[in-house]
User: What shape does this take?
Amino acid sequence: MLEAKTRHVDWSEVDEDTFVRLCEFAYFRNYTPPTFRLVDGRSPAEATKLPKAPVPEPESEPEPEPEPEAAPVDQSPSSKDTTCNEPEIPYTERSIWTGQLRDAFTKDLTISSMQSGNLDYNFTPPKNTSPWEDFTPVFVEQARLYILADKYGIDSLCQLILSKLHQTLKSFKLYDTGITGIIEFVQFVYSNTPPTYGNQIDPMRDLVTRYVVSVIGKIGESECFQDLLEDGGPFVSDFWRTIWSTDGRQAIDLSLLIWIELPSFSLCFYPLSLR
Assistant: This one.
């Protein structure tokens, strides 16, 4: 490499947190994933810090005034409470076929085991418990580390990142507020990883594509997901290839015309046998 000859590395495009995680892996054969942030832009640590109220100066006791009539109590929940209590998005099955796509990530994706070798692998995936928790940095920052590791051929680190992301996504609860983070994750990965050649897809691209396929029943009608499809590009090709191969492995005889319908996107499949 040029860096070995010149003994100089220009990593101006590598941010400090990514570099720290790379160094952590070099020394400890493991790294600490980033934490989530709150939807309003504050980190979890900042959210727990409450400002100290100033101590009021003692005042003379005022004369008592007549008590005003109590205003009627508004029983309707505020918008903040409503958002906070927002349930996880349910999975909508448009057909038997869409139900099978849920296995594209949990069963059909193979991630190498990290229990072997000299890796210090002891990982409990972080879990989100409310729509206020934004996991975008958890996904994107680990993908950023993967891109650096892949560039320099650090395969063990690449596999470790894939394994941690896979476990995190399996337990990830998808709320309406989390869809944009998933789309941003997909866009970042496809903007910074090698293109697909033939059937050789980059493992990180395969991970994000299979996850999107597995949650299509949750995000299919989302406007930002439809915008992602309308943008076209390699993601749409891999998305379709994953859908087709997932159904093909089930060896199901499609005797009827099947439609997957989205408000601005339709795929039509004609009768055929996949046996």
